[in-house]
Amino acid sequence: MEPTDSTRHDNLSTIELQAILNNRAAVDHPQPIDYGLTHDELAFSDTDTWRAGLKYKSGGLWFGDRRRMAATFMGAAFVAGGVVLLFSAGRLSSVGLVCLGLGMLCLACDSWMLRYNQNYTCSALSAYKDALRLHELYKIAKLEVERTKHSYWKHLNGYEFERATAEVLNRHQFNPKVTRGSADGGVDIEVTKGGRKGVVQCKAHAARVAPATVRDLFGVMHHSNSDFGIIVSLGGFTKGAIEFARNKPIFLLDCADLIAMQEGQDILAKFFPADPTP
Question: CATH classification of 150-271, choosing from 3.40.50.1370, 3.40.1350.10, 3.40.50.1110, 1.20.1440.230?
């Protein structure tokens, strides 16, 4: 599963997402070489635009980086040499001052090149960045659609299922935090909503969840002083599990429930009434 930042699509409507999916330019991963860019031009603007596997006009170490490395090395060498010479015989003090001055000049050039790198821009680079942003939005829009299909959820492994479930819960203000593997104490996700603390267990297998699992979660809730618990199961729940959870602050979600929440339906809203407006 490809990780995403869910906040990046919060301001996009369904129509906008569909328009992005239908835009062929958004599908293709942009390459710097298509915009006539080189390593040097990317280095002069924003090193964060670098991505592994991209194609450039030139290879190897960026030319801009080589100039900065040379300036830094020469500056440090001259400064060090100047300091040594200044503490040597008096007849060499003038040479030491010259070396010290050259070193400071080199370091000043390095600082100037760094500022230039940060401020440099060009139309080709701006177009490339726009294409990158559009491609990232395409991946988000595609994931939004994929999560409305049973096949997407069925093919996730345990960790991916936890992460995807947390992102769906986050859409409904559960403020999820995925726990750390085997040391989670029977809790896969910690959540809070409306001032209430909750624990979540995720079952990414085809078998239906039995009553024992629900009883275990009930014990975890008491042990962690949680107000409610959620079990998310791709395989659904047995009749006994549903009966045990009845009249308890335990909510059982299956794959259809996840898809409904992904589509924007807050199926747990009745259990978490909104705070009255003042």
Answer: 3.40.1350.10
